[in-house]
Design a protein that fits this description.
With 252 residues, the chain is mainly α. 78% of the residues lie in helices and 0% in strands. It contains 14 helices and no strands. The longest helix has 21 residues.
């Protein structure tokens, strides 16, 4: 990290001591070797915090100093392409997902474009928690309160349940959807969304009786009707590493 800090300090110092004409040259050329260097570092270690931080600093500074320059747009497009390559190599690299979000905000890409990209990644790998999380981050608060959107997202999560019921990634997303469904303004729509989600979980439990996730989801969806000793004893049997927690909840 110290070496990266030194490079940033050197760049800032060079810009502050340059004449106006030199500064123009610096602003046009300084960022290219920095991006190449950090890209080399990322190809060696794609989850290096300092390398990602330096790259974000370079793009942020470039965007601040030359927001409308063609070179800035070219750099942003290059960064997006790099994110695609790195996520093809490791689709769970959360550093890259976070950086992609930073880049697309500067590029002005639409939410629909990013949702389409996450859908592609999720359909390729339902276990991709980073893609599920990225999807939730791009669904605005208001959009996430529309039942039509929630129905589609619940269906997407359900497709993952039927394919890989033991994988927790889609279940975490389902938990987020449940919290959004509870915020629906229309009581009828709210009850319908939660009831449909509960029925899906009950069906999964019947198909996969040894899977804890649909039972946990039913507890969250049903409230007191599923907070009985029998339910928690069953959870303790399915998830023995947390049996003490389940028994404490059941007795409390």
């Amino acid at each position: 990290m110290t070496a990266w800090n030194h490079r940033r300090e050197t760049i800032e110092a060079a810009a502050s001591t340059s004449s106006p004409s030199d500064a123009e040259d610096a602003e046009r050329d300084w960022w290219t070797p920095e991006l190449k260097l950090s890209e080399t570092a990322l190809r060696s270690n794609p989850k290096s915090y300092p390398s990602w931080h330096h790259r974000k600093w370079v793009i942020g500074r470039l965007k601040r100093l030359a927001p409308d320059a063609p070179t800035t747009r070219d750099a942003l497009e290059h960064e997006l392409a790099l994110c695609v390559k790195l996520l093809d190599m490791d689709d769970r690299n959360f550093h890259c997902w976070a950086y992609r979000r930073f880049i697309v905000e500067h590029l002005g890409r639409s939410v629909d474009d990013e949702l389409a990209y996450t859908l592609e990644k999720i359909e390729n790998n339902f276990s991709n928690y980073s893609a599920w999380h990225y999807r939730s981050a791009h669904l605005s608060t208001e959009a996430a309160k529309k039942k039509e959107m929630l129905d589609k997202e619940f269906e997407l999560a359900s497709n993952a349940f039927y394919t890989e019921p033991e994988d927790q990634s889609a279940w975490m997303y389902h938990r987020w959807l449940t919290s959004r469904a509870r915020e629906l303004d229309d009581a009828g729509e709210r009850e319908a969304a939660l009831r449909a989600a509960l029925e899906t979980c009950q069906e999964i439990s019947e198909l996969e009786p040894e899977c804890k996730w649909p039972l946990l989801a039913q507890v969250m969806l049903s409230g007191e009707s599923h907070r009985d000793a029998e339910t928690f004893n069953r959870l303790a049997a399915l998830d023995p590493s947390r049996s003490g927690y389940y028994r404490d909840v059941a007795s409390g």
